[in-house]
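Try this one yourself first.
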């Protein structure tokens, strides 16, 4: 019989709807029930494509005996971290403080008032490698709650006080300048893996935001070392196993430092960020490899992640079914030499094995190999035959929920990639996703605009948007406005950014991840560091700066500059973890430049100037294209044609150089 999760919009919660565990969704009613019964709350946090979440679910949550213990002694609450990043952030901070590490599934035991007292991540069904079994943990916590409750509640209160008392030194004494950005570059250089690209050791994550900083730093300063690190890292990833050599798109991370064996889940946010980075790398270098990867990643998102409503699903699982009836990580993606020969024949199979580095020993498990492409490019016919054969395999599961923030990132990537490579279909897909966000995720009925974080199957979820939702969606709308010449998207971005200032910003310039009127947890989450995606804080700084450049708004520029104080503080010390903030700082130092392109709709000369403006590498440059003296964009006002011809104006703080009608001259203006 289904439990309370049966009515959820989260695919992750729905995966647990048939468990024998009497799960509750995160709600006041769950904590009221714990108070009524006098039992602790067991919080389990994960997400749909999380491999170890599936493992623990199968081992423990689907087990009748384990479920009986949970149902008798706890109120068990299941949370999708992608729907409630605020809940995840607050309790993950407690887990990391107590254990020195974190991860998912996250397991937290807490009082009925939400105060945590015991933590962990994955617990096995039997003791293993020094870890207690989940049954032992349940029994231990039950005994402590029964026999030493005063001690337990005292510990919980102390942990909660410690968390609530933590303060964040966010800088605030000015914005980062040349010195801080040079120190950040030096820090990245020290951590750079010269042999394999990327930063640090295993596991190695795609450093998309750090690469964006490097590209912008090179564009502004001419530092060749920055460009070389960016280009070499992107090539290493594109030729490694972390990139899907047949279908395009990137896996979540590499378990080794050589980019060979990925953790196979594919996330929308990774692919949106990397699609944009590779497009920007092509813009800077003309690299054929960067062009191919940008387009293949865009096509992957549209083909594999686009939903029926026009948005983009969150992720593909790492695991899939195997021909023998099992279920294994990477099964959809890996190959043996025999499988290649079976599909391609002996001669082409041998050639494919050599091209893709598929060996008899294998690079993964049980003699299978992850496809790499270290040398010559594989012909499209060979890849197409292998892709068609792979399509016959059982597919990984898909998390169909639409997350506002990650769709904002996808909109920006698809709009720009479509514009750069003359793919209007990609711009159309970006526009359809933006339409969905306006129609379903943005609520204009409650004063200002309120964001719904998620939707599924055309139904908005109940969870409120967090800072990254407002900021990343605004970023996507601003990119779409620049590409399409439709000022409506600038207007929608403004609605969102007004809410960012009014509801997420505190005096002094710092930002919180949740709105001031959001549900009160034991701590209001606040994290400026960029992780798998830009932090809400960094994303807000970038979108606010771009909007201010479009409109001349001092309010929005001041808010952006206040937010960048944290980059001044953290950039020189931890550049890998504030890459997007550093990229925004590069834009601030460059102006950013404002480009107004005026001319009649459909005018070929206006189109040429518009394209040159979009292809500029000037950090964070904003572009407005439309009719002369047009009203859709503030940048177009009082910008006439020149001798009856389409023209471009390059400005900083609305102070402009003389206009030009020459595309080559415009290009020069944007590179100096």
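Now uncover the answer:
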């Amino acid at each position: 019989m289904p439990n309370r999760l049966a009515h959820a919009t989260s695919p992750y919660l729905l995966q647990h709807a048939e468990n024998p565990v009497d799960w509750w969704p995160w709600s006041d009613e769950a904590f009221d029930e714990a108070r009524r019964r006098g039992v602790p709350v067991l919080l389990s946090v994960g997400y749909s494509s999380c491999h170890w979440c599936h493992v623990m679910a199968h081992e423990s949550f689907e087990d009748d005996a384990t479920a009986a213990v949970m149902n008798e002694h706890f109120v068990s609450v299941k949370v999708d971290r992608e729907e409630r990043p605020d809940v995840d952030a607050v309790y993950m901070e407690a887990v990391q403080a107590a254990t020195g590490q974190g991860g998912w599934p996250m397991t937290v035991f807490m009082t009925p008032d939400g105060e945590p007292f015991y933590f962990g991540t994955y617990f096995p069904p039997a003791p293993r490698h020094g870890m207690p079994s989940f049954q032992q943990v349940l029994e231990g916590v039950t005994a402590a709650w029964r026999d030493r409750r005063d001690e337990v509640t005292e510990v919980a209160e102390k942990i909660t006080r410690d968390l609530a008392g933590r303060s964040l030194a966010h800088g605030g004494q000015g914005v980062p300048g040349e010195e801080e950005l040079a120190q950040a570059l030096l820090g990245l250089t020290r951590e750079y893996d010269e042999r394999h690209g990327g930063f640090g050791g295993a596991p190695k994550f795609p450093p998309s935001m750090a690469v964006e900083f490097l590209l912008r730093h090179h564009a502004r300063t001419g530092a060749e070392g920055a460009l070389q690190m960016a280009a070499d890292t992107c090539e290493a990833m594109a030729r490694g196993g972390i990139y899907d050599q047949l279908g395009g798109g990137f896996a979540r991370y590499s378990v080794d430092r050589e980019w060979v064996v990925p953790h196979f889940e594919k996330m929308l946010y990774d692919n949106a960020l990397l699609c944009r980075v590779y497009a920007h790398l092509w813009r800077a270098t003309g690299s054929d490899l960067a062009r191919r990867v940008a387009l293949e990643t865009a096509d992957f998102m549209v083909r594999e992640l686009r939903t029926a409503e026009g948005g983009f699903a969150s992720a593909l699982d790492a695991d899939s079914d195997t021909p023998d009836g099992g279920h294994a990580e990477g099964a959809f993606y890996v190959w043996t030499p025999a499988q290649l020969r079976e599909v391609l024949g002996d001669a082409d199979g041998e050639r494919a094995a050599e091209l893709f580095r598929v060996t008899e020993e294998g690079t993964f498990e049980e003699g299978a190999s992850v496809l790499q492409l270290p040398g010559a490019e594989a012909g499209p016919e060979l890849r197409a035959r292998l892709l068609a054969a792979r399509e016959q395999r059982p597919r990984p599961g898909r998390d169909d929920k639409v997350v506002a923030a990650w769709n904002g990132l996808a909109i920006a990537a698809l709009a720009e990639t479509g514009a750069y490579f003359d793919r209007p279909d990609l711009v159309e897909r970006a526009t359809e996703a933006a339409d969905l966000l306006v129609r379903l995720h943005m609520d204009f009925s409650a004063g200002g605009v309120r964001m719904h974080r998620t939707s599924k199957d055309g139904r908005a979820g109940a969870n409120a948007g967090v800072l990254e939702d407002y900021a990343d969606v605004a970023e996507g709308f601003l990119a779409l406005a620049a590409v399409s010449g439709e000022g409506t998207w600038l207007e929608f971005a403004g609605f969102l950014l007004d809410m960012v200032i009014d509801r997420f910003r505190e005096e002094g310039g710092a930002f919180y991840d949740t709105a001031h009127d959001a549900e009160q947890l034991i701590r209001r989450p606040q994290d400026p560091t960029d992780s798998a995606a830009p932090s809400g804080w960094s994303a807000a700084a970038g979108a606010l700066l771009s909007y201010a450049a479009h409109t001349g708004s001092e309010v929005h520029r001041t808010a952006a500059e206040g937010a960048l104080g944290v980059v001044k503080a953290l950039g020189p010390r931890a550049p890998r973890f504030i890459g997007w903030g550093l990229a925004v700082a590069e834009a601030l130092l460059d102006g950013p430049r404002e480009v107004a392109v005026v001319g009649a709709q459909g005018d070929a000369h206006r189109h040429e100037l518009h394209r040159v403006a979009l292809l500029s590498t000037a950090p964070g440059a904003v572009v407005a294209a439309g009719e002369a003296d047009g009203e859709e964009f503030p940048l177009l006002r009082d910008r006439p044609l020149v001798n009856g011809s389409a023209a471009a104006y390059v400005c900083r703080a609305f102070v402009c150089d003389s206009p030009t009608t020459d595309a080559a001259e415009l290009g020069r203006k944007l590179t100096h």
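Discussion: Residues 594-669 form one domain. The longest strand covers residues 41-46.
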